[in-house]
Amino acid sequence: MESIPAAVVGQKINEWYRHIKKLNVTDAEMLREEIKRELDVMEEDEQAVLYFQLMDFRHEQMLEYVNPSQNQVNKADYLRAVEGEGKKLTGIMEYYVHFFKGMYEFSKGEYIKAIAFYRHAEKKLDKVADELERAEFYYKMSEIFYHMKQTHLSMYYIEQAYHAYKAHKANGMYEIKVIQCRFVIAGNYDDLCTHEKAIPHLKEAEESARNLGNKYMLAKALLNLGDSYKNMGDQDRALYFLIKAVDQAKESGAKELTQIYYELALLHFKKKEHESGKHYFELGVESAERFNDWFFTNLLNVLKLLYLEGAQPTAVADALEELDDIRGYPYLEELALVSAEFYTEIGHMDESVYFYNKMIYAQKQIRRGEFLYEI
């Protein structure tokens, strides 16, 4: 059989990547198999092989995103295949390598490592000609800065991603990307305590997700609405949206179901509705075990010690220590405040002061986060 030019295979990989970014699973799977067959008869080209390996890694990330309840293959294997040891990479390939490594580290909660890779990728962003591909990079930067509570940096990047995706919203292919951008925008507004600006974005996201029939995105929209109303102090509305989120998360197999149960348990416990709190706590533990979610297992453990097992201050303090890292600081801040208020209500002021100080410690660590990745 006559060999296939590497440029032809490269163009097919580009098309494959477009389907991956649009979450077109069926088309992406078909192209993946077609390209695999063509690689066997392609003219020798190291860059094309590396490009395929990178897209294969990105394909696995897409599958994990659209099927969060399923265990996927070890993505670290893909990264080891594209380390580039002894290989000279082009500018665009350097961009992809660092960008996808950043995504991988982010998925593990390694935010500082992820930012380091994203920064390397950003230096090669001028090699990326496609506006929507640059928007993907901007979105990922905004996402990680949001999780690190670096609100203004997150807003800087999300604005660029949002406008790029919204400009292409008419064909319906990038509606999900617009929804994702709205989640980040709303989360940043919540962190700025301007909740009235967050709610419209989340309601737009909810409506869009309903129109698309996307239960996973709808579950996230309802969860975020519940969280925003909780931050506003409107517990009844928060409960309303969180309860609605449960069904959508169950139907879509969303791992966010654990977070929804955690939020419901916390709200009921704070309202002194012990039995309801215990009910959702138990569901949360089940869900955390099913999804192997150690992070929310730690959060639920704090609720257990505080509300179900006698509120021993040393045990609660030890449980909060598990959240003493860059991913856990926002939750440490919230749960330390919850603990301080709990002990204030029962008249244990020494313990209350201790947990207030723990909250202040978490706030300081969040503020320090912006300096951790600077040289």
UniProtKB/TrEMBL annotation:
Q: Where in the cell is it found?
A: Cytoplasm
> By its UniProt entry, which Gene3D superfamilies does this protein fall under?
Tetratricopeptide repeat domain (1.25.40.10)
Stretches forming TPR repeats: 219-252
Q: Which key words tag this protein in UniProt?
A: Cytoplasm, Plasmid, Repeat, TPR repeat
Entry keyword annotation includes Magnesium: no
This protein's superkingdom? Bacteria
Gene Ontology cellular-component terms for this entry are: cytoplasm
Query: Family, per the entry?
Result: Belongs to the Rap family.
Q: What is this protein called?
A: Rap40
What is the species listed in this Swiss-Prot or TrEMBL entry?
Bacillus subtilis
